[in-house]
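F.,

This is the one I mentioned.
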């Protein structure tokens, strides 16, 4: 039985197929046809909806791509669509889009409206004066997952800047009117499926003990974290998964811990969850996180899911490899830790056994002599996949490189460490000649393939060029050591 609040009305439904996405349910069962399907891959943003969850008495509003999010994600949460935010009058985001001519064909408009409405609501929740115009950065970040082929975006950006010109609209009041309910995560929890059909069943454990018990019973179950990649198997390959265990509500797997100059990130931390903490602790990693997908994707996608997915073009694995991270693994065989560089065994293959899951990612925070360079090369700045992901960590004393870790994505069947390049850097002075010579060793570490994103020769040249860029930034003094605070 799934229980959720749609635009102020509580709904309970015990007949939802486990493979049903939010988009499919809204359109076919609730006649919410303003939620559009554009790509069915989380790329275009036409299906964007605003969700709210109540945690420790605080409402949090965020956007997701309804096309790749399972209905299970809505359980005990609030959802708003473009129809729902227009009550007696239009929402400021909607009125501004009209007044500033932000819509032409209109297909993408509901998703854009929901991204703007969420930006508006988040500013309201933060106590920001709505008469203060949002920064261009905040506007672009909110809209980074919404594609529009008609307007050229400037009218949409103008609408975003003027939302505060209209009478205030607080969607939290709709939640209050619907009777806010803070759910006991342990209430009614059992090992019975949350959803079930003739061909599939879905479980949503609340504790690691319950998760492990389910894995003992269903060791080959499909583990679903954020689903930002796995969701495509349903929407584009039309697969049915016989047994799914949704991890999103497991207590403790979304915590962030700092101890003894070490950071431990729960595997279920979303990218959005870690942005603020990383900005303080590892600024370069925070900047990389902001390049991953769109805001909608970062709200769903998880660190552990990105690693377990084992994609050779995943953005976070090279960064964590360069940081010397370990992954904590739990499951039916007990708790153990493995170095991330030993975790990937082949294309989309890892050390994880059936009945196991990643519980945490652990790495040492940068120290005074550490310099970190994380660069993602892609055709678009936002919402795009890497052609090359470059991650370099250097420890420098007295203008000499005493330690180096270079990790690369998009260069092999797995994320890799470039050990030959590292050997060419260690013990050498910080100058262009050192980095150029080390770069000449890159072919010994990888033989990239050519594909639609880049040729093999381009990828190799980019890797060498980025090494030189790191040298230039170091020798010109344009980069400071990243020191954990």
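My design for it:
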């Amino acid at each position: 039985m799934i229980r959720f609040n749609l635009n102020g009305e509580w709904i309970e439904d015990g007949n939802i197929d486990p493979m049903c996405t939010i988009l499919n349910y809204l359109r076919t069962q609730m006649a919410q046809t303003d939620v559009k399907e554009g790509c069915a891959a989380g790329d275009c943003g036409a299906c964007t909806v605003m969700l709210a969850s109540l945690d420790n008495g605080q409402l949090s509003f965020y956007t997701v791509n309804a096309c790749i999010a399972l209905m299970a994600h809505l359980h005990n949460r609030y959802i708003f669509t473009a129809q729902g935010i227009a009550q007696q009058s239009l929402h400021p985001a909607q009125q501004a889009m009209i007044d500033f001519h932000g819509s032409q064909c209109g297909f993408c408009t509901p998703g854009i409206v929901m991204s703007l409405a969420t930006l508006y609501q988040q500013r309201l929740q933060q106590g920001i004066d709505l008469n203060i115009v949002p920064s261009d950065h905040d506007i672009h970040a909110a809209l980074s997952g919404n594609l529009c082929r008609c307007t050229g975006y400037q009218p949409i950006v103008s609408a975003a800047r003027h939302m505060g010109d209209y009478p205030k609209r607080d969607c939290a009041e709709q939640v209050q009117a619907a009777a806010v309910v803070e759910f006991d995560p342990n209430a009614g929890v059992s090992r019975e499926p949350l959803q079930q059909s003739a061909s599939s069943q879905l479980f949503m454990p609340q504790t690691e003990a319950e998760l492990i018990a389910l894995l003992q019973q269903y060791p080959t179950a499909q583990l679903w974290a954020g689903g930002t990649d796995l969701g495509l198997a349903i929407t584009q390959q039309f697969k049915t998964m016989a047994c799914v265990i949704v991890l999103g509500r497991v207590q403790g797997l979304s915590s962030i811990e700092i101890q003894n100059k070490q950071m431990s990130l729960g595997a279920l931390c979303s990218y959005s969850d870690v942005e603020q903490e990383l900005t303080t602790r590892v600024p370069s990693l925070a900047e990389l996180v902001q390049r991953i997908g769109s805001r909608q994707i970062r709200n769903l996608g998880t660190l552990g899911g990105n690693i377990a997915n084992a994609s050779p073009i995943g953005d976070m694995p090279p960064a964590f490899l360069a940081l010397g991270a370990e992954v904590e693994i739990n499951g039916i065989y007990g708790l153990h830790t493995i170095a991330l560089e030993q975790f990937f065994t082949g294309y989309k293959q890892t050390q994880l056994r059936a009945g196991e899951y990643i519980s945490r990612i652990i790495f040492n925070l940068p120290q005074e002599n550490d310099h970190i360079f994380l660069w993602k090369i892609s055709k678009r700045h936002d919402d795009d996949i890497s052609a090359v992901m470059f991650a370099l960590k250097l420890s420098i004393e007295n203008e000499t490189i005493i330690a180096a870790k270079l990790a690369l994505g998009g260069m092999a069947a797995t994320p890799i460490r470039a050990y030959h390049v590292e050997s060419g850097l260690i013990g050498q002075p910080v100058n262009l000649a050192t980095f150029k010579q080390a770069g000449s060793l890159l072919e010994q570490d990888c033989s990239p393939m050519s594909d639609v994103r880049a040729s093999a020769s381009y990828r190799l040249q980019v890797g060498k060029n980025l090494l030189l860029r790191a040298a230039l930034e170091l020798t010109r003094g344009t980069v400071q050591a990243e020191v954990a605070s």
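The chain has 17 helices and 20 strands.

Talk soon.
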